[in-house]
Amino acid sequence: MQIYVVQTGDNVDSIAEMFGISVESLILDNQISYPYRLAVGQALYIRDNTQEEERIPLYTGGYAYPFIDRTTLEETLPFLTDIYVFSYGFTMEGNLIPPTSDDMWMIEASLAGGVRPILTLTPLGADGRFNNNLVSAAVRDMEVQQRLIWELGRTVQEKGFGGVDIDFEYVQPEDRVPLAQFVRRLTQIMNLFGYQVSVALAPKTSSDQQGLLYEGIDYGLLGGAANRVMLMTYEWGYSYGPPMAVAPINMVRRVVDYAVTEISRDKISLGIPNYGYDWPLPYERGETKARTISNQEAVELAVDYGVEIQFDETAQSPYFRYWQYGIQHEVWFEDVRSMKAKFDLVLEYGLSGVGYWQLMNFFRANWLLLEDMFLIKRF
Question: Domain containing 26 — which CATH number?
Fold first, then answer.
Protein backbone atom coordinates (compact mmCIF):
# COMPACT_ATOMS: atom_id res chain seq x y z
CA MET A 1 0.00 0.00 0.00
CA GLN A 2 1.13 3.52 -0.78
CA ILE A 3 -0.42 6.96 -0.45
CA TYR A 4 0.20 9.44 -3.24
CA VAL A 5 -0.58 13.16 -3.08
CA VAL A 6 -1.68 14.63 -6.40
CA GLN A 7 0.68 17.20 -7.92
CA THR A 8 0.08 19.88 -10.56
CA GLY A 9 -0.16 18.27 -14.00
CA ASP A 10 -1.13 14.80 -12.73
CA ASN A 11 -4.03 12.82 -14.13
CA VAL A 12 -5.35 9.31 -13.54
CA ASP A 13 -3.44 7.91 -16.52
CA SER A 14 -0.06 9.35 -15.48
CA ILE A 15 -0.49 8.25 -11.84
CA ALA A 16 -1.54 4.74 -12.81
CA GLU A 17 1.47 4.46 -15.11
CA MET A 18 3.76 5.83 -12.39
CA PHE A 19 2.77 3.03 -10.00
CA GLY A 20 2.24 0.29 -12.55
CA ILE A 21 -1.42 -0.21 -11.75
CA SER A 22 -4.51 -0.10 -13.90
CA VAL A 23 -6.45 3.11 -14.31
CA GLU A 24 -9.58 1.15 -13.45
CA SER A 25 -8.27 0.10 -10.01
CA LEU A 26 -7.07 3.64 -9.23
CA ILE A 27 -10.49 5.05 -10.10
CA LEU A 28 -12.39 2.32 -8.24
CA ASP A 29 -10.28 2.34 -5.07
CA ASN A 30 -10.48 6.12 -4.73
CA GLN A 31 -14.08 6.53 -5.92
CA ILE A 32 -13.02 9.01 -8.59
CA SER A 33 -16.11 9.97 -10.55
CA TYR A 34 -16.33 10.71 -14.27
CA PRO A 35 -14.74 12.70 -15.91
CA TYR A 36 -11.98 11.60 -13.49
CA ARG A 37 -10.71 15.03 -12.47
CA LEU A 38 -8.32 15.37 -9.55
CA ALA A 39 -7.56 18.10 -7.03
CA VAL A 40 -3.98 19.16 -6.33
CA GLY A 41 -3.22 17.95 -2.81
CA GLN A 42 -5.72 15.08 -3.01
CA ALA A 43 -4.46 11.92 -1.27
CA LEU A 44 -4.88 8.68 -3.23
CA TYR A 45 -4.71 5.10 -2.01
CA ILE A 46 -2.39 3.08 -4.28
CA ARG A 47 -2.97 -0.65 -4.23
CA ASP A 48 0.11 -2.86 -3.88
CA ASN A 49 -0.45 -6.51 -4.71
CA THR A 50 3.13 -7.67 -4.24
CA GLN A 51 3.76 -9.18 -0.81
CA GLU A 52 1.25 -9.40 2.01
CA GLU A 53 2.77 -8.65 5.42
CA GLU A 54 1.52 -10.19 8.64
CA ARG A 55 -1.45 -8.24 9.94
CA ILE A 56 -2.61 -7.72 13.51
CA PRO A 57 -6.21 -8.78 14.33
CA LEU A 58 -8.53 -5.82 14.85
CA TYR A 59 -12.09 -5.44 16.07
CA THR A 60 -14.02 -3.07 13.79
CA GLY A 61 -17.41 -1.55 14.50
CA GLY A 62 -19.49 1.36 13.34
CA TYR A 63 -22.83 3.07 13.81
CA ALA A 64 -25.52 3.25 11.15
CA TYR A 65 -29.15 4.30 11.00
CA PRO A 66 -31.72 1.78 9.68
CA PHE A 67 -32.31 4.03 6.67
CA ILE A 68 -28.77 3.43 5.41
CA ASP A 69 -28.61 2.80 1.67
CA ARG A 70 -28.69 -0.95 1.03
CA THR A 71 -25.72 -0.88 -1.35
CA THR A 72 -23.67 1.16 1.11
CA LEU A 73 -24.42 -1.38 3.84
CA GLU A 74 -23.55 -4.34 1.63
CA GLU A 75 -20.24 -2.76 0.58
CA THR A 76 -19.30 -1.95 4.19
CA LEU A 77 -20.20 -5.23 5.90
CA PRO A 78 -17.11 -7.18 4.71
CA PHE A 79 -14.92 -4.82 6.74
CA LEU A 80 -16.83 -5.04 10.05
CA THR A 81 -16.93 -7.19 13.15
CA ASP A 82 -20.04 -5.49 14.55
CA ILE A 83 -22.54 -2.94 13.30
CA TYR A 84 -24.31 -0.69 15.82
CA VAL A 85 -27.94 -0.02 14.92
CA PHE A 86 -28.67 3.59 15.88
CA SER A 87 -30.75 3.85 17.92
CA TYR A 88 -33.24 2.61 20.50
CA GLY A 89 -34.56 5.01 23.12
CA PHE A 90 -36.56 4.52 26.29
CA THR A 91 -39.19 6.24 28.39
CA MET A 92 -39.00 7.52 31.95
CA GLU A 93 -40.76 4.28 32.94
CA GLY A 94 -38.11 2.09 31.29
CA ASN A 95 -40.05 1.07 28.20
CA LEU A 96 -37.92 0.57 25.12
CA ILE A 97 -38.59 2.76 22.04
CA PRO A 98 -37.52 1.24 18.69
CA PRO A 99 -36.03 3.29 15.83
CA THR A 100 -38.51 5.19 13.67
CA SER A 101 -37.36 3.14 10.64
CA ASP A 102 -37.69 -0.65 10.54
CA ASP A 103 -34.33 -2.25 11.37
CA MET A 104 -35.08 -5.93 10.72
CA TRP A 105 -33.79 -5.80 7.14
CA MET A 106 -30.52 -4.32 8.42
CA ILE A 107 -30.19 -6.96 11.14
CA GLU A 108 -30.85 -9.78 8.67
CA ALA A 109 -28.40 -8.37 6.10
CA SER A 110 -25.70 -8.04 8.76
CA LEU A 111 -26.14 -11.59 10.01
CA ALA A 112 -26.11 -12.89 6.43
CA GLY A 113 -22.82 -11.04 5.93
CA GLY A 114 -21.24 -12.56 9.04
CA VAL A 115 -21.44 -9.30 10.99
CA ARG A 116 -22.93 -9.07 14.48
CA PRO A 117 -25.70 -6.45 14.83
CA ILE A 118 -25.66 -4.51 18.11
CA LEU A 119 -28.60 -2.65 19.65
CA THR A 120 -27.55 0.92 20.47
CA LEU A 121 -29.36 2.43 23.47
CA THR A 122 -29.52 6.22 23.74
CA PRO A 123 -31.44 8.59 26.06
CA LEU A 124 -32.65 10.74 23.17
CA GLY A 125 -35.77 12.77 23.88
CA ALA A 126 -38.57 13.62 21.47
CA ASP A 127 -36.57 16.69 20.38
CA GLY A 128 -33.64 14.53 19.27
CA ARG A 129 -31.38 15.78 22.06
CA PHE A 130 -29.76 13.78 24.83
CA ASN A 131 -31.95 13.91 27.95
CA ASN A 132 -29.96 13.35 31.14
CA ASN A 133 -33.20 13.01 33.12
CA LEU A 134 -33.79 9.76 31.25
CA VAL A 135 -30.32 8.61 32.30
CA SER A 136 -31.09 9.44 35.92
CA ALA A 137 -34.33 7.47 35.81
CA ALA A 138 -32.61 4.43 34.33
CA VAL A 139 -29.64 4.34 36.69
CA ARG A 140 -31.28 5.43 39.98
CA ASP A 141 -34.75 3.84 39.96
CA MET A 142 -34.38 0.06 40.27
CA GLU A 143 -37.91 -0.63 39.05
CA VAL A 144 -37.29 1.41 35.89
CA GLN A 145 -33.88 -0.21 35.45
CA GLN A 146 -35.22 -3.75 35.80
CA ARG A 147 -37.94 -3.06 33.23
CA LEU A 148 -35.40 -1.55 30.81
CA ILE A 149 -32.97 -4.46 31.18
CA TRP A 150 -35.80 -6.97 30.70
CA GLU A 151 -36.97 -5.21 27.54
CA LEU A 152 -33.42 -5.04 26.22
CA GLY A 153 -32.98 -8.77 26.78
CA ARG A 154 -36.28 -9.60 25.11
CA THR A 155 -35.56 -7.39 22.08
CA VAL A 156 -32.01 -8.65 21.64
CA GLN A 157 -33.24 -12.24 21.66
CA GLU A 158 -36.29 -11.72 19.45
CA LYS A 159 -34.54 -9.65 16.79
CA GLY A 160 -31.21 -11.46 16.65
CA PHE A 161 -28.93 -8.77 18.05
CA GLY A 162 -25.56 -9.83 19.40
CA GLY A 163 -25.42 -7.33 22.23
CA VAL A 164 -26.12 -3.83 23.51
CA ASP A 165 -24.15 -0.62 23.18
CA ILE A 166 -24.74 2.15 25.74
CA ASP A 167 -24.37 5.65 24.32
CA PHE A 168 -25.30 7.96 27.21
CA GLU A 169 -24.01 11.53 26.87
CA TYR A 170 -24.22 14.62 29.10
CA VAL A 171 -24.56 12.40 32.16
CA GLN A 172 -25.00 14.36 35.40
CA PRO A 173 -22.03 14.17 37.80
CA GLU A 174 -24.15 12.57 40.53
CA ASP A 175 -25.00 9.72 38.12
CA ARG A 176 -21.35 8.79 37.56
CA VAL A 177 -21.30 5.79 39.92
CA PRO A 178 -24.96 4.68 39.37
CA LEU A 179 -24.32 4.64 35.59
CA ALA A 180 -21.32 2.35 36.02
CA GLN A 181 -23.35 0.11 38.33
CA PHE A 182 -26.13 -0.09 35.73
CA VAL A 183 -23.62 -1.02 33.00
CA ARG A 184 -22.04 -3.68 35.22
CA ARG A 185 -25.46 -5.16 36.03
CA LEU A 186 -26.48 -5.16 32.37
CA THR A 187 -23.17 -6.74 31.34
CA GLN A 188 -23.44 -9.52 33.90
CA ILE A 189 -26.95 -10.41 32.74
CA MET A 190 -26.24 -10.15 29.01
CA ASN A 191 -23.03 -12.16 29.26
CA LEU A 192 -24.94 -15.04 30.85
CA PHE A 193 -26.81 -15.43 27.55
CA GLY A 194 -23.81 -14.87 25.27
CA TYR A 195 -24.39 -11.20 24.48
CA GLN A 196 -21.79 -8.44 24.79
CA VAL A 197 -22.16 -4.93 26.25
CA SER A 198 -20.15 -1.93 25.11
CA VAL A 199 -20.11 1.73 26.12
CA ALA A 200 -19.34 4.88 24.13
CA LEU A 201 -17.18 7.27 26.16
CA ALA A 202 -16.87 11.04 25.84
CA PRO A 203 -13.25 11.99 24.97
CA LYS A 204 -11.71 12.74 28.37
CA THR A 205 -8.09 13.66 28.92
CA SER A 206 -8.09 13.46 32.74
CA SER A 207 -10.21 12.02 35.55
CA ASP A 208 -11.22 15.45 36.89
CA GLN A 209 -12.04 17.06 33.54
CA GLN A 210 -14.75 19.68 33.94
CA GLY A 211 -17.89 19.99 31.82
CA LEU A 212 -21.25 18.26 31.53
CA LEU A 213 -19.98 16.03 28.73
CA TYR A 214 -17.26 14.60 30.98
CA GLU A 215 -18.06 14.70 34.70
CA GLY A 216 -20.58 11.85 34.70
CA ILE A 217 -18.31 9.51 32.71
CA ASP A 218 -15.85 7.47 34.79
CA TYR A 219 -13.36 5.72 32.52
CA GLY A 220 -12.13 3.32 35.18
CA LEU A 221 -15.54 2.23 36.41
CA LEU A 222 -17.15 1.95 32.97
CA GLY A 223 -14.11 0.25 31.47
CA GLY A 224 -14.27 -2.34 34.21
CA ALA A 225 -18.02 -2.80 33.87
CA ALA A 226 -18.37 -3.30 30.10
CA ASN A 227 -16.91 -5.83 27.66
CA ARG A 228 -15.72 -3.05 25.34
CA VAL A 229 -15.56 0.74 25.19
CA MET A 230 -15.34 3.14 22.29
CA LEU A 231 -13.57 6.46 22.74
CA MET A 232 -15.58 9.15 20.95
CA THR A 233 -12.42 10.78 19.64
CA TYR A 234 -14.07 13.19 17.21
CA GLU A 235 -16.17 16.37 17.11
CA TRP A 236 -13.46 18.83 18.06
CA GLY A 237 -14.59 20.43 14.84
CA TYR A 238 -18.39 20.34 15.01
CA SER A 239 -21.50 21.98 13.51
CA TYR A 240 -21.61 25.09 15.73
CA GLY A 241 -17.94 25.30 16.59
CA PRO A 242 -15.14 27.16 14.80
CA PRO A 243 -13.57 25.57 11.71
CA MET A 244 -11.01 22.93 12.64
CA ALA A 245 -10.22 19.24 12.18
CA VAL A 246 -12.96 16.88 13.33
CA ALA A 247 -10.43 14.54 14.93
CA PRO A 248 -7.02 16.24 15.21
CA ILE A 249 -4.50 13.53 15.96
CA ASN A 250 -2.76 15.58 18.66
CA MET A 251 -6.04 15.78 20.62
CA VAL A 252 -6.93 12.15 19.91
CA ARG A 253 -3.55 11.13 21.33
CA ARG A 254 -4.25 13.00 24.57
CA VAL A 255 -7.46 11.03 25.06
CA VAL A 256 -5.73 7.72 24.40
CA ASP A 257 -2.89 8.68 26.75
CA TYR A 258 -5.43 9.01 29.54
CA ALA A 259 -7.68 6.10 28.55
CA VAL A 260 -4.93 3.48 28.73
CA THR A 261 -4.22 4.46 32.35
CA GLU A 262 -7.81 3.55 33.31
CA ILE A 263 -8.95 0.85 30.86
CA SER A 264 -7.40 -2.36 29.58
CA ARG A 265 -6.11 -1.82 26.04
CA ASP A 266 -7.77 -5.03 24.84
CA LYS A 267 -11.15 -3.40 25.53
CA ILE A 268 -10.55 -0.09 23.76
CA SER A 269 -11.81 0.91 20.31
CA LEU A 270 -10.59 4.21 18.88
CA GLY A 271 -13.46 6.32 17.57
CA ILE A 272 -13.00 7.49 13.96
CA PRO A 273 -15.15 10.03 12.07
CA ASN A 274 -16.36 9.14 8.59
CA TYR A 275 -17.39 12.66 7.59
CA GLY A 276 -16.28 16.27 7.37
CA TYR A 277 -17.70 19.77 7.79
CA ASP A 278 -18.12 22.76 5.49
CA TRP A 279 -18.21 26.12 7.36
CA PRO A 280 -19.31 29.42 5.80
CA LEU A 281 -16.99 32.26 6.81
CA PRO A 282 -16.56 34.42 8.75
CA TYR A 283 -17.36 32.19 11.72
CA GLU A 284 -19.65 33.80 14.31
CA ARG A 285 -20.12 31.93 17.57
CA GLY A 286 -23.75 30.93 18.09
CA GLU A 287 -24.67 31.90 14.53
CA THR A 288 -22.52 29.96 12.09
CA LYS A 289 -23.50 26.36 11.42
CA ALA A 290 -21.33 23.99 9.41
CA ARG A 291 -22.80 21.56 6.91
CA THR A 292 -21.95 17.88 7.35
CA ILE A 293 -20.44 16.36 4.22
CA SER A 294 -18.94 13.02 3.23
CA ASN A 295 -15.22 12.72 2.64
CA GLN A 296 -15.85 12.10 -1.06
CA GLU A 297 -18.07 15.18 -1.29
CA ALA A 298 -15.25 17.25 0.21
CA VAL A 299 -12.82 16.17 -2.51
CA GLU A 300 -15.42 16.83 -5.21
CA LEU A 301 -15.89 20.37 -3.86
CA ALA A 302 -12.14 21.00 -4.15
CA VAL A 303 -12.19 19.66 -7.71
CA ASP A 304 -15.27 21.67 -8.73
CA TYR A 305 -13.88 24.95 -7.39
CA GLY A 306 -10.34 24.34 -8.55
CA VAL A 307 -8.69 24.74 -5.15
CA GLU A 308 -5.70 22.94 -3.69
CA ILE A 309 -6.21 20.64 -0.70
CA GLN A 310 -3.88 21.52 2.17
CA PHE A 311 -2.73 19.20 4.97
CA ASP A 312 -2.29 20.29 8.58
CA GLU A 313 0.71 18.39 9.93
CA THR A 314 -0.19 18.94 13.59
CA ALA A 315 -3.79 17.78 13.25
CA GLN A 316 -2.84 15.29 10.50
CA SER A 317 -5.98 16.35 8.64
CA PRO A 318 -6.78 17.76 5.17
CA TYR A 319 -8.57 21.08 4.64
CA PHE A 320 -9.17 23.79 2.05
CA ARG A 321 -11.08 26.98 1.38
CA TYR A 322 -13.26 27.93 -1.57
CA TRP A 323 -15.60 30.75 -2.64
CA GLN A 324 -19.27 30.24 -3.55
CA TYR A 325 -21.78 33.01 -4.30
CA GLY A 326 -19.49 35.59 -2.70
CA ILE A 327 -19.11 33.59 0.53
CA GLN A 328 -15.86 31.92 1.50
CA HIS A 329 -16.04 28.40 2.97
CA GLU A 330 -13.60 26.32 4.99
CA VAL A 331 -13.73 22.52 4.77
CA TRP A 332 -12.11 19.93 7.04
CA PHE A 333 -12.49 16.22 6.31
CA GLU A 334 -10.74 12.84 6.43
CA ASP A 335 -8.56 11.20 3.79
CA VAL A 336 -6.24 8.19 3.68
CA ARG A 337 -3.45 10.21 5.31
CA SER A 338 -5.56 11.19 8.30
CA MET A 339 -6.96 7.67 8.56
CA LYS A 340 -3.48 6.15 8.50
CA ALA A 341 -2.44 8.49 11.32
CA LYS A 342 -5.29 7.08 13.42
CA PHE A 343 -4.51 3.47 12.49
CA ASP A 344 -0.85 4.07 13.37
CA LEU A 345 -2.01 5.32 16.78
CA VAL A 346 -3.97 2.08 17.28
CA LEU A 347 -0.80 0.12 16.56
CA GLU A 348 1.40 2.35 18.72
CA TYR A 349 -0.82 1.99 21.80
CA GLY A 350 -1.80 -1.64 21.22
CA LEU A 351 -5.52 -0.89 21.11
CA SER A 352 -7.76 -3.74 20.05
CA GLY A 353 -10.30 -1.98 17.84
CA VAL A 354 -11.74 0.96 15.95
CA GLY A 355 -15.29 2.30 15.86
CA TYR A 356 -16.75 4.56 13.17
CA TRP A 357 -19.25 7.35 13.51
CA GLN A 358 -20.92 6.84 11.13
CA LEU A 359 -21.27 4.38 8.23
CA MET A 360 -23.88 6.17 6.13
CA ASN A 361 -21.36 6.98 3.38
CA PHE A 362 -19.02 4.41 1.87
CA PHE A 363 -15.34 5.44 1.90
CA ARG A 364 -13.62 2.64 0.00
CA ALA A 365 -10.02 3.86 0.35
CA ASN A 366 -10.39 3.90 4.14
CA TRP A 367 -11.53 0.28 4.22
CA LEU A 368 -8.83 -0.90 1.82
CA LEU A 369 -6.20 0.84 3.94
CA LEU A 370 -7.63 -0.72 7.10
CA GLU A 371 -7.58 -4.16 5.48
CA ASP A 372 -3.96 -3.61 4.39
CA MET A 373 -2.87 -2.88 7.95
CA PHE A 374 -5.07 -5.22 10.01
CA LEU A 375 -6.79 -8.59 9.96
CA ILE A 376 -10.46 -7.82 10.60
CA LYS A 377 -12.01 -9.98 13.31
CA ARG A 378 -15.28 -11.78 12.64
CA PHE A 379 -17.62 -12.92 15.39
Answer: 3.10.350.10
